[in-house]
Amino acid sequence: MINESFNTNIIDSNADSPIRGIVLQKLRAFNKLLDALSEKNFGIMCAIEYIDDVIEVDSSEQRTKITAEQDKLNVKSFSMNSHQVINSIRIFFDNWREKTMNSESIKFVFYTNTVIAKERMTALLTENSVKLPERPILKLLIEKEYDKALPVFKIIFKDYYISQHEQNLKKEEKEKIEIFQQIINQVTDEEWKLFLNLIDWNFEQEDEKILIASVKDKIGKLCDEYDVKLRYIDSIFNEIMSMIEMGTFQDDFLNKVVHVAQLKVLFLEKARIVQSEEYLDPAHQKWDDICCEDIRNLKEKVESVCNQYGEDIEDLQDDYVEGAYEQEHHNNLKAVKAFKYRIYKLCEREIRKAMKVSDTTDMSKIQIDNFVSTMTDKCETLISDKAKTYNTIPFKDRDMIRKTILILFEECYLAFDKGGTVNG
User: Where along the sequence do coiled-coil regions lie (predicted)?
Assistant: First the structure.
C-alpha cells in the first residue's frame, strides 16, 4: 500500500500552508487529472497534503508509478540556499531513502512560478573552503552537471538535513541524531546522482491565477468532447476543486485520492443534464403560474355532481395516491410539471366543452367513469405525440395518465362543475 511505502512521520511536512499555496496544490492535482482524462489514462489518481504537496499515483501499467510534488509560490527568485528549495529536497530525500531508494517507480517534482538565482557565499561554505561555481547550483542540477554541483550541494544539504532533524527530535531522543548523520554521510556520489535524477525541476511555471485559466480552458475542451455546454465550466471547476479538498479530511488513503474516473463520471453526468434540458418540454415553466381557488378534493368534487358514486370512490382515491407517490419520486420534477400541465390544459378544454353541451352538475357514475376514460384516451394521444419532440416525458403509460387526471382533480386544478376558479 502507498501509506506503507513512505515515512510520513520523520518531520511533519504537512504544516498549514498559506491559502495561495493550498490553491496551487489543488490546481496542480486538478491539472494532472484533466491531462489524464484527456489522454484516456484511467490509472491516474491524485491527492494533496499527503506525503507531499501533491501526489500522483499511476497504476495504468504493470508497475505502479508515484510522483511526489512540492509546489512553491514566490515573488522572489530561488537559489539552493532558499528554504523552500532545500526543504523540498529534504522531503524528497526522506521519502526516497526510507523505502524506495532502489526503485525506479518514483519521481519527484519541484514546481514554482519563480526564477533561479545564483547562490551567495555563506559562512558554511567558507568554513568548508568551497567556492561557488560560476553558474547557479540549481541550473547545474537541472542540466545534470553533477561534478560541478555536488561539492557545494552536499555541504549545504547535509548541514540543513542534520539541523532539521535535530530540531525535531525530543530532548530524550537527541542521541538519535547520530543515526541521521550516519544516513546522510553514507550516501555515495553515485547514489546522490541517482536521487537527483528523480527530481523534475519546474521553474518559471504558471502561478495560481494563470493555472486557473489554463485548467478552465482544459475543462472547456473536455466539455466539447463530452457534449457538455460551456456554461458548466465554472460548475465543473468548483465541484472538482471541492473533491480534491475534501480528500484532505479523510484518514484512509483511498478516500484521500481523487481518481480520474470520478472526473469522467462528472462530465457524463453534466452531459446527461444538458441532454435533459435540451429536450425538456418548456411547459413546466407554466405549471407554477396556474392560480387555483377550488379547495375541494377529489371526493368532494365527485360527490358534488354525483351522489350515487358510492364506495367505488375509494378506488379513485387509491389511484390518486399511487400516482402522486410515483410523481414525487421521479428524478426530473420539471418534466413531471410539464407532463401535468399538458394533461391539465387538455382536460380543462374538454370539461369546458362538456359544460356547454350538457349539464355536468348532475352526472351518473357511468358518465363520470366514461368522461375520465375519454379524457385519458385524448391525453394519451397528446403525450404520445409530444414524446416525438421531447425525450424527457416522465410517464407514457395509460395508467399513469389516468392517475394524473385524478391527481388534478384532487389538487384543485380540475372539477366537473364551476365550484371553484382556475386561472391558467
Answer: 162-190
From 287, 315, 291, 290, select the one nearest 302 (Cα to Cα).
315
Using DSSP, state whether 57 is helix, strand or coil.
strand
- Provide the 3-class DSSP secondary structure of residue 424: coil
Inter-residue long-range contacts of 326-331, CB under 8 Å, 24+ positions, other chains counted: 326/395, 326/400, 326/403, 327/394, 327/404, 327/407, 330/394
Average of per-residue pLDDT values in the chain: 88
From residue 171, alpha-carbon distances to 15, 77, 348 in Å are 22, 36, 87
Q: Which three cell numbers stand for residue 225?
A: 468532447
84 Cβ neighbours under 8 A, 6+ residues apart: 70, 72, 74, 78, 112
Paired with 109 in beta bridges are 69, 200
> Cell triple for residue 193?
546522482
Q: Check if the beta carbon of residue 202 is closer than 8 Å to that of residue 110.
A: yes
Helices (H) and strands (E) in the chain, counts: 17, 8
| Calpha distance 35→23 (Å, rounded) | 18
Residue 259, strand partner residues: 45
Q: Residue 18: pLDDT band by 50, 70, 90 thresholds?
A: low
pLDDT at 422 over 50: no
C-alpha cell at 177: 541524531
3-class secondary structure, 365? helix
- The Cα-based distances of 174 to 9, 11, 160, 162, 182 in angstroms read 16, 14, 16, 12, 14
Task: Reply yes or no on whether the pLDDT at 106 is more than 90.
Answer: no
Rounded to an integer, what is the distance from CA 201 to the centroid of its chain? 29
Long-range CB pairs of 223-231, under 8 A, 24+ apart, other chains included: 223/267, 223/270, 226/267, 226/268, 226/270, 226/271, 227/271, 227/274, 227/275, 228/267, 228/270, 228/271, 228/274, 229/274
Q: Is the pLDDT of residue 1 over 60?
A: no
What are the tens digits of pLDDT across the range 32-66?
999 999 999 999 999 998 888 999 999 988 888 99
What does the H/E/C string look like for 22-41? HHHHHHHHHHHHHHHHHCCC
